Amino acid sequence: MTSSLPATNTKSKPIRFDVKNIKIRDTPHKILLQNENGPCALLALINLLVLSSNEISSLGVVTKQELKKLISKDSIPITAATTTTTTTTTTTENEDGIKKKKVKNGKVSLEELIQILANNALQGNTLEDQDYQNDVDQLLHLLPQLHTGLNINPRFDGTFEDSKELSIFRLFGIPLVHGWVIDHDKYPAIYHLSYEDAQNILTEASEIEETNDADDKDKECNE
């Protein structure tokens, strides 16, 4: 196997994500929150894996278990300064003078998340499937930039244009859906198009309109 783990930049400031406690149908869960980077396909993938049922790929199930362990409170060291996942405990005093301990949730580093996804992907190709290996190669290529966003192209029929970005979700058995859907009977001419196709058509139409307007002005001047 020629694939290798994605390189990380040790000179830049480490990127960390806050852990948040939530409840879904009275069941407690922990998820990761976005930082200042904004759009974050990485966290979408991580939280989907953490919150999903076992109706995902075998690779997704294994990865889910490791991610849940990583972000759980019990696995977050309190005093180890060398770790990239931390938590703190503070003592507060209420109006009656009673002291209470308040535990602040930890932070999980980008590097830890990337390592879990990459390691599991590399170890998952036990049958040496070439399609699987191609998806792994794409994953390793995209992982270092995955926290800043992901370029996908939805089609108006409810599907997506196949791309290397989609291989990440396919690898972990996570289906994608979107709301950019139109009525085939009302708009048959564009039903088969994608978002980018529509953008290109609008751009071309605008350029044609500008050219026609310029031609009309030239005719008026000549007359």
TrEMBL record:
InterPro entries reported in the protein's UniProt record: MINDY, MINDY_domain
Gene Ontology MF, one: cysteine-type carboxypeptidase activity
Highest taxon of source: Eukaryota
Record GO biological process: protein K48-linked deubiquitination
A GO CC term assigned to this protein in UniProt: cell periphery
Pfam families: MINDY_DUB (PF04424)
Domain MINDY deubiquitinase, chain residue ranges per copy: 16-76, 100-218
PANTHER family, per the entry: NF-E2 INDUCIBLE PROTEIN, UBIQUITIN CARBOXYL-TERMINAL HYDROLASE
Protein name: MINDY deubiquitinase domain-containing protein
Organism: Naumovozyma dairenensis (strain ATCC 10597 / BCRC 20456 / CBS 421 / NBRC 0211 / NRRL Y-12639) (Saccharomyces dairenensis)
Lineage summary: Eukaryota, Fungi, Dikarya, Ascomycota, Saccharomycotina
